Amino acid sequence: MIATQDSIDLIKSQEGFKTKAYKCPAGLWTIGYGHTRGVKLGDRITEEKASELLYFEINDRFAHELDELGLQLNQNQFNALISFVYNIGITKFLKSKLYAAIKENPNNEIRIKKLWNQWTYAGGKKLNGLVNRRKLELELYFKK
User: Distance from the CA of 110 to the CA of which of 25, 43, 77, 99 falls in 20 to 30 A?
Assistant: First the structure.
């Protein structure tokens, strides 16, 4: 599976675009649409390059990593999970109760919503931006 435009649009809307490197609430150097790998103070990026980077990163990296897990997901579930994993990282996801719940039953709405909504903190603080992002991800995940 690959992430479709729904996933890309969700990530772009929640990450926002920044031309200059900045420190995100979690303390990571970030640029473009939430890209963190190899970013350092003083880095700059164009919107075109940031869009390319986002597309390739989510489809060449995160989509591949999620596919290897063998989860039985529909396209909307996959798209929502791409946004989630792009935000928190695959390592944290694989150690989470949310991963175990999705692996057990990807359609258990009550359990998945409860666990998904626990991921609203960065740097030890609950962030409204993450609350909103989780809401949008869950709407996409359970979209019929």
Answer: 25
